[in-house]
Amino acid sequence: MTTLKKIVPIFAIVMCLVLCVALVACGDNTPDPSTTIQYTVTFVYGTGAENATVKVDSNATVTKPDDPEREGYEFVGWKEEGASEDFDFNTKITKDTTLVAQWNEEVAQTARIRWTDDEAVTFVFTGATPKNVEIGTVIEFGVRVSPYYVGEFKVYAGTQECVLGENGKYSFTAEKSVTVSVDGLRRDDAKIKGYGTEKSPYLISNAAQLKTFTDSINAGEETYAESYVALTADIDFKGETIEPIGGQQ
Predict the structure, then answer these.
(1) Which residues are 114's β-sheet partners?
(2) Given the DSSP bridges, would you call strands 121-124 and 138-145 parallel, antiparallel or unpaired?
(3) Stretch 29-42: mean pLDDT
């Protein structure tokens, strides 16, 4: 009887321990966030913009981003790096993944033409200045060089040299957007030579020198009183108007 009394408390203690273990085992089964596996999904845009990365839980899906934009290209979807098929955004992520934006180059229907008018040249057109034209359009134009510039020059549409026709006009075919420019001109010598004496008069041989002479008088910088001046060549102002000496018509 005494032995039985000793066994009962021991049995009760054992049962309590078993019950405690069972309660612990049936407690909160929420996984520890620190042990959740995550993978990195990288989006490569191919536009020059910085790549984007997101963290995705293992066996979760990644959210599709907004479609990117790229000038001159049409966005057509995402592909996993090295894959041939479009990426399915219902795919569960089980590894680090790189998704690359796919682009189709847009075929231009028009070409934009830029004209580099400056003090050296003026482009002359029959009608409006061509700015946006259909691909394949032949553009014809004239070039008027300032009387103050000289030199053997060439006209370019981008890197293509324009053709000078028998009609005195240049032309090129617009295959893409280009800038039209003139190369080879330099400003003519505007310094007046001579000393203004009878034996060594001031010599004016070009438009730049005549403009220097005129401007200095009209600005009150020089009067050239009692000076000798000689015009040594015919001067063509090519349609440009020059202010008269003394500032009066």
Answers:
(1) 179
(2) antiparallel
(3) 75
N-terminal to C-terminal alpha carbon distance within the chain: 146
Contact by Cβ (8 Å): 132, 155: no
Nearest to 190 by CA among 152, 223, 235: 235
Distance from chain centroid for Cα 30: 53
Q: Which two tokens stand for residue 123?
A: 């482009």
> By C-alpha distance, which of 171, 119, 114, 162 is closest to 140?
171
Signed CA dihedral, 124, 127, 133, 138: sign only? negative
Domains of the chain: 38-105 (2.60.40.4270), 110-187 (no CATH), 188-248 (no CATH)
Q: pLDDT-derived band of residue 39, with 50, 70 and 90 as boundaries?
A: very high
Give the DSSP per-residue string, 141-186.
Answer: EEEEE-TTEES--EEEETTEEPEEPTTS-EEEE-SS-EEEEEES-E
Please tell me the pTM assigned to this model: 0.51
- Helices first, then strands: H and E counts in the chain: 2, 17
- What is the SS3 string spanning 50-85? CCEEEEEECCCCCCCCCCCCECCEEEEEEEECCCCC
What pLDDT score was predicted for residue 241? 79
